[in-house]
Amino acid sequence: MKDPFSEIVKVLDECESIACFVHKSPDGDALGSALAIYNFYGDKKRISIYSPTLYPEVYSFLPGIGSVIVYNDFSSDVKGADVALFLDCGDIGRVPGFDFNLFREVVNIDHHESNGNFGSYNLVDPDAPATSTLVYELLKRSRAGVIDTNVAICLYTGLYTDTGGFRYSNTSEYAFKVAGELVSYGIDPSRIAFEVYENYPFRRMKLLALALETLELFVDGKVAVMTVYKDFFDKVGATPEDTEDFVNYARAIKGVEVGIFIRERLTGGVKVSLRSKSYFNVSEVARIFGGGGHNHAAGCELDLPPEEAKLKLLAVIKERLG
Ligand code: 5GP
Ligand code: MN
User: Fold this and answer.
1) In sequence order, which residues have a C-beta less than 8 Å from that of residue 314 and are 6 or more positions away?
2) Any atom of ligand 1 within 6 Å of the Cβ of 28
3) What CA–CA distance (Å, rounded) separates 34 from 23?
4) Are strands 121-124 and 103-110 parallel, antiparallel or unpaired?
């Protein structure tokens, strides 16, 4: 079998233009992976980064973040390139409107088990702690650019945020090995920790205060639900991107196995984040509703008002929790 690393390095090294795609509500791993590519190839190629939605303000420190284009309408906002490079996208629907005709090759780099291998080249490894560690392995094999401090900041941020600051079950020996290697490129881990977890806009904290008020327990205290209704945003001047990681407050309660975060979308329906602590597989639940993710972190979207979405999710989870 061909080695996907060397095949993909060849495709990326030899093309002239790459359009990177991150998923809706991009996180540190998706953004860090795309920006690592952007900084690595520098001005040797045309690299663009497209995001379907705005990114959380905390990621403003990532080198090159100003280059990210938030598109509204794919067909009018996205320009064709030699290669479309998907980063951290569990399925193609995470990049709405994607048009295969605009690209010669589609490269898919991801660590979600549910990934549908939709690319012409696929590098999908559910054992990778982050997509950014796969990107790191690729860039180490390339001779077309250099891993400098800026590239290392982006890769480390992906790994750091996807492991929840080296707390989740994907915090393996390998994760620390890569982190150690990235530190050797001159990054400052304490500064990245500060930027990601201790530099929130005030409005996010005010929104969190409203969200915490909604916390409820179900199934003998094993499930916690937190909800952000759309009118909350105007009350404190916040935006949907400010809700990143709110779900962790639901999961962090003693005795809770499953944390649910329901965000009412401004356009109707809800975006749901699911997290589990140890034995419960939230990815299976997300998939029932057309979403996906990992065993302990998954998400989906439902075209239902928040209360109805909550009841549907609870029914499925209750049955499986026993
Ligand atoms: P989050 O809850 O932070 O949005 O996402 C948690 C995990 O589930 C991430 O790995 C994310 O990529 C995945 N995820 C979230 N929402 C969806 C969705 O609607 N579809 C799919 N396939 N994956 C999702
Ligand atoms: Mn990821």
Assistant:
1) 218, 219, 223, 225, 260
2) no
3) 11
4) parallel
**Residues with Cβ–ion distance below 5 A, ligand 2:** 29, 88, 131, 162
* Protein residue with least CA distance to atom 23, ligand 1: 292
Each of the 322 residues of the chain gets a pLDDT tens digit; together they read 678 899 999 999 999 999 999 999 999 999 999 999 999 998 899 999 999 999 999 999 999 999 999 999 999 999 999 999 999 999 999 999 999 999 999 999 999 998 999 999 999 999 999 999 999 999 999 999 999 999 999 999 999 999 999 999 999 999 999 999 999 999 999 999 999 999 999 999 999 999 999 999 999 999 999 999 999 999 999 999 999 999 999 999 999 999 999 999 999 999 999 999 999 999 999 999 999 999 999 999 999 999 999 999 999 999 999 7
- Verify whether ligand 1 is closer than 6 Å to residue 273 (CB atom): yes
Nearest Cα neighbor of 183 from 228, 215, 225, 153 is 153
Q: Give the closest residue (by CA) to ligand 1 atom 15.
A: 299
- Predicted TM-score (pTM) of the model is 0.96
- Max CA-CA distance within the chain? 58
CA of 26 from ligand 2 middle (Å) equals 9
Name the residue with the closest Cα to ligand 1, atom 16.
299
